[in-house]
Amino acid sequence: MLKPLGNRVLLEVKKEEEKTASGLVLPDSAKEKPQTAVVVAAGEGRLLDNGNYSKPAVSVGDKVIFEKYAGSEIKYQGTEYLVVKDTDIIAIVE
Amino acid sequence: MLKPLGNRVLLEVKKEEEKTASGLVLPDSAKEKPQTAVVVAAGEGRLLDNGNYSKPAVSVGDKVIFEKYAGSEIKYQGTEYLVVKDTDIIAIVE
Amino acid sequence: MLKPLGNRVLLEVKKEEEKTASGLVLPDSAKEKPQTAVVVAAGEGRLLDNGNYSKPAVSVGDKVIFEKYAGSEIKYQGTEYLVVKDTDIIAIVE
Amino acid sequence: MLKPLGNRVLLEVKKEEEKTASGLVLPDSAKEKPQTAVVVAAGEGRLLDNGNYSKPAVSVGDKVIFEKYAGSEIKYQGTEYLVVKDTDIIAIVE
Amino acid sequence: MLKPLGNRVLLEVKKEEEKTASGLVLPDSAKEKPQTAVVVAAGEGRLLDNGNYSKPAVSVGDKVIFEKYAGSEIKYQGTEYLVVKDTDIIAIVE
Amino acid sequence: MLKPLGNRVLLEVKKEEEKTASGLVLPDSAKEKPQTAVVVAAGEGRLLDNGNYSKPAVSVGDKVIFEKYAGSEIKYQGTEYLVVKDTDIIAIVE
Amino acid sequence: MLKPLGNRVLLEVKKEEEKTASGLVLPDSAKEKPQTAVVVAAGEGRLLDNGNYSKPAVSVGDKVIFEKYAGSEIKYQGTEYLVVKDTDIIAIVE
């Protein structure tokens, strides 16, 4: 098991279909869109100056949208994960 | 439903008419103007060092003016949204 | 009505005469000078870490001098405004 | 009257003689020297996080030395002033 | 013995096999992957403004994943170590 | 008299002999060395967020070593001074 | 005697043997290694916002490893020293 540290969150990214059935890449727009993922694990949070932790506002199983290009890729037991800071998570999809 | 995190605010942008009836683009000035949107959802706020939250000063339904180019575009269930930080919202149109 | 957020201040800029009667531009000096405006509305202030607000030190009707090039232009109901942060206001003309 | 805001200080700059009687410029050294001015007005100070103000350490009438190139030039009723932050004032000449 | 200071952590890096049996380098992707190491020693932590320490969230013996290129290499008694800040440790492998 | 403001310190610099008796410049190394000076006056200190001052840790008369190139040169009544921030003073020579 | 200020530490650097008996330079790797030194004196520490000092975590006589290229060189009574900030010290060699 991977246990992210600080305000990091472990994500399993949902690869969006970028090709049509015939294999063509269909760019929707030139502007980058954020990506969707599922929260696999979350750290204890960032230590505040008053001694408390700012616990990440997401829970395991949440489907989230995060800033593209944020974070570090980790391959663990054959699965690829992404570790991002909780501040790079834009929204929860409920 | 999309639930923005932190001091983020989910906006539905009002596309301004940029073309005349005949299809000509009429640039008003070279300087960029901010854009108008309606608040669809707002996060819990930014965690302050004293443990409180700086709740976004906008409410769902507010018509707002925000810094152009701020934020991330999200497409959700066929609608395009923009997620900006509340500090990128310039004013409420009352 | 426009209600600026945070420590933003809504200004109506006094366009200085830059041309003589005959239409010639008379640059006074190469160094940029700040500009004059009247305060139309002011936000609630910036939230401090102790939970208080740093209320803008200007009031509606104040004639102010502000850093040139600061802020965002807004056109609202046919009038052009400028929204600046209160820290971009240099002085009140009394 | 001009009332500077925040930790700004309104200065009237003493133009140093840069030419000799015959009109020659006599550069003393390649390294920039700070300049001298008299304090005309001072703001209320910078708001600290504990709610107090860091009042500028200069008083009206003080002759001060300030960092060259700091601040904004203001022309008001025929007189040229310079508005600098109090942190750009190096020393009081007593 | 080496005793890391502040929020530094002493790591012994596990060199990943980068070659196949036949000696060919098999780059998996162009994007950099983080690396794995074992915690050999940890500092007392970073001093917070309230006088407490933010103790590193790792213990001696933990297998960790850290940001590639972070830290300083140290050779001590024939062994190579890496000293990284605890904020450069992404996750613990449990 | 010059009274430095904030955490500034007024120094009178000891020009090091850079030439031999025969007038040759003898550079010791390509790496810059700090310089020596005597403290002539010290400001009240930097205002901390808790309302106290961080008084400069030097006293009038101290011989100090400071970071070369730090500070502003001031010429006052025929003497050249250097005003540096107290954080640019490296050590006291006792 | 030299008394370092703030969170500075006075080091006497141990020059590593970079040449073999025959005089050849033997570079171990292209990546820079930190260097070893002995603590000669330590400042009072950095003043925290709560009025306390963050005392350097090293004592006179400690053998330390520090970030190469950090600090300022000082020559005093024929001996060369290096003054670094305590945050540039990586580890104590015990």
Structure description:
Seven copies of one chain form a homoheptamer. Chain A is mostly beta strands. Chain A is 0% helix and 45% strand. The first copy, chain A, has a single domain (8-14, 33-93), classed as GroES chaperonin (10 Kd Chaperonin, Protein Cpn10, Chain O, Roll), CATH 2.30.33. Chain A has strands spanning 2-4, 8-13, 35-42, 46-47, 53-54, 63-66, 72-76, 79-85, 89-93. In chain A, the strands form two sheets. In chain A, strands 7-8-2-3-6-9 form a six-stranded antiparallel sheet, with no helix packed on it. A two-stranded antiparallel ribbon of chain A has the order 4-5. In chain A, strand 4 (46-47) and strand 5 (53-54) form a beta hairpin. Chains in contact: A-B, A-E, B-C, C-D, D-F, E-G, F-G. At the A-E interface, strand 1 and strand 7 of A face strand 9 of E. Strand 9 (89-93) of chain C pairs antiparallel with strand 1 (2-4) of chain D, so a sheet runs across the interface. Chains A, B, C, D, E, F, G: Pfam families: Cpn10. Chains A, B, C, D, E, F, G: Belongs to the GroES chaperonin family. Chains A, B, C, D, E, F, G: Its main location: cytoplasm.
